[in-house]
Amino acid sequence: MKPDIPSALIDLLREARHVVVFTGAGVSAESGIATFRDAQTGLWRHFDASALASAEGFANDMALVWGWYEWRRAQVRKAQPNPAHRALAAMAGSVAQLTLITQNVDDLHERAGSKEVIHLHGEINRARCFHCGAPHAFSTDIPDEPEGGRRIDPPACLRCGGPIRPGVVWFGEALPSEAFRHAEAMAAQGDVFLSIGTSALVYPAASLPEIAAAHGRTVVQVNPDSTGLDGLASYSLRGAAGDILPRLVAQLAAP
Description:
The chain has 255 residues and is α/β, with parallel strands linked by helices. It has ten helices and nine strands. The chain has two domains: 154 residues, TPP-binding domain (Rossmann fold); 89 residues, SIR2/SIRT2 'Small Domain'. 35% of the residues lie in helices and 16% in strands. The strands form two sheets. Strands 3-2-1-7-8-9 form a six-stranded parallel beta sheet, sandwiched between helices. A three-stranded antiparallel beta sheet has the order 5-4-6. The chain is elongated, with a radius of gyration of 19 Å.
């Protein structure tokens, strides 16, 4: 049985001057993009996360790490926005102001029509030099990667000749300071904070709903499972984001 969307929540969203949305891996997983842990298959199944997503791991075996991220980038490019992505893009037209913050490194929110998305963990379709930081432009072609993955030497920087690295946040690295400061400010200011498809375990991003609650904002979570936000959220809607959000937005847009 599908959970009801409380009418009080719909009223709250209609009256809100500013709605802040925070999305995690569960939203992208509904488009077929493997979560970080699930993506450790094929060639990479014998490696722990620190060997695939850290500066040290990249320095130790650049071809292994670049190959993994090219496999993940191919998966992202082939994926399509799901009903949750599209519902959030539509929600922007039904509330006074909406700020979208994501932990996801894909571009599915943008492809669904969301504008000015705050990416806390970087973007897989961006890259930069490991040494000088110069940006690297990817081809518009979808990477043709085998299902089990392969090792690939990273391209060389056109400025200094150094290796190109993925434009994502690795273990041991700080979040992009400007993006995180902006996200913190929005969490404190928004009237309603929606946490969707995230376990709320990965800090410092997981501090955002706590900031919202500390400022007296209403926290709402959408997730199939129990999370660390259960005691913090005023509303917990259990289920897939791709099912709940379209129904929520339809009720929100109804006269």
